[in-house]
Amino acid sequence: MISELITTLAQTRKAARITQADLAERAGLSRMAVQRTETGDVDPRFSTLQEMARVLGMELMAVPKGLHGQVQALIQASTSEAAAPADKTASKES
Questions:
Q1: Measured between alpha carbons, how far apart are the two ends of the chain, in Å?
Q2: Which residues have C-beta within 8 Å of that of residue 5, sequence separation ≥ 6?
Q3: What is the pTM of this model?
Q4: Burial degree of 50 (CB within 10 A; 0-12, 13-18, 19+)
């Protein structure tokens, strides 16, 4: 799971055309900390990942394992509701 998060952070950084050095500066980290996090050379602190995510316009949340299913269902329901108006608009235009 953590490797998926790190991959997502690195992909988001690259898509935003932000260098590791720029991300590090904005997040208050060293460039080596960002590089070693992205390459998996270190097991980063949550606070490091949180700062990287903040700079990239993302938010990390720690969810207890017991609530993971409920949070996942809430996210899926919210995503479905957000897509529903677009679907209705598309069908009206047809």
A1: 42
A2: 49, 60
A3: 0.73
A4: middle
Q: 61: closest CA among 3, 53, 43? A: 53
Burial category of 22 from C-beta neighbours within 10 Å (exposed 0-12, middle 13-18, buried 19 and up) = middle
59-84 per-position pLDDT tens digit: 998 899 999 999 999 989 988 887 77
| Residue showing tokens 């995503």 | 79
Query: 64-79 in b/e burial notation, b at 16+ Cβ within 10 A?
Result: eeeeeeeeeeeeeeee
DSSP helix, strand, coil percent of the chain (3-state; round to 5):
75, 0, 25
